[in-house]
Amino acid sequence: MKRSLEVLALCFSFQAAAAALDITSVNPAAVKGSAKADFTLSAFTVKNISFDKGAVVLPVTENNGKTYADIKLLSKSLYVKLETCFKNGCVKPAKAPLAPKFKIEALKPLKSKTRLANADISFDGDLLVVAGVMVSSKEPGTYWVAFPPALIFGDGAFKSAVESAVIAAWVKKNK
Q1: What CA–CA distance (Å, rounded) separates 175 from 172?
Q2: How far apart are CA 145 and CA 127, in angstroms?
Q3: What is the sign of the dihedral through the CA atoms of 76, 28, 36 and 54?
Q4: Domain check: are 43 and 83 in the same one?
Q5: Domain count along the chain
Q6: Which residue pairs from 99-102 have beta carbons closer than 8 angstroms and sit at least 24 positions apart in sequence?
Q7: Is residue 147 predicted with pLDDT exceeding 90?
Q8: Which domain, by its residues, includes 47?
Q9: 3-state SS of the chain?
Q10: Each residue of 27-78: pLDDT tens digit?
């Protein structure tokens, strides 16, 4: 019985490792020694990730004199991958990674008339993105999602799936 539990735990650990975000490309390609780069992580790109004083620094959004950390690292493994790229250069994965799994972690209502809520979205448990649930000023009752400017989706279908999930979660929460 104990042996079967160990095997089961090992299988789950391999499955969890397979679900991690992979760095599929970097701009500039010769990132070793660079201070700043754009990293493509499977289905999206995070622009302007920097390496300052030996630490990986994610981009922030500035609005009306305030600074917001809209993109956050959740796992040490992704941090180490980014740090290794800055220190030693990046190696592309052997095979094309699957689209990451995403989860709406939280919806936090706001007092704004246009930005109704912040949606915390995690990708493979490695990266957290705070997106805005916006209401259309032209079509009342129509919602759209505002992603941080440093997050660029390369796969339109994946972006659409994330947007649909965020809007569906918001509508469900407000029924």
Answers
A1: 5
A2: 18
A3: positive
A4: yes
A5: 2
A6: 99/42, 99/43, 99/155, 99/158, 100/19, 100/21, 100/41, 100/42, 100/43, 100/124, 100/126, 101/19, 102/161, 102/162, 102/165
A7: yes
A8: 2-88
A9: CHHHHHHHHHHHHHHHHHCCCCEEEEECCCCCCCCEEEEEECCEEEEEEEEECCEEECCCEEECCEEECCEEECCHHHHHHHHHHHHHCCCCCCCCCCCCCEEEEEEEECCCCCEEEEEEEEECCCEEEEEEEEECCCCCCCEEEECCCCEEECCHHHHHHHHHHHHHHHHHHCC
A10: 888 778 788 999 999 899 999 999 999 999 999 999 889 999 999 999 999 9
Check whether residue 10 and residue 82 sit in a common domain.
yes
Side-chain-side CA neighbours of residue 116 (13 Å): 19
26 with 38: CB under 8 angstroms? yes
- Mean pLDDT over the full length of the chain: 87
Predicted local distance difference test score (pLDDT) of residue 19? 57
- The separation between CA 147 and the C-alpha centre of its own chain, rounded to angstroms, equals 10
Which two three-digit tokens encode residue 133?
């649930």
Query: Which residue matches tokens 């992603």?
Result: 147
How many CB atoms sit inside 10 A of residue 26's CB? 22
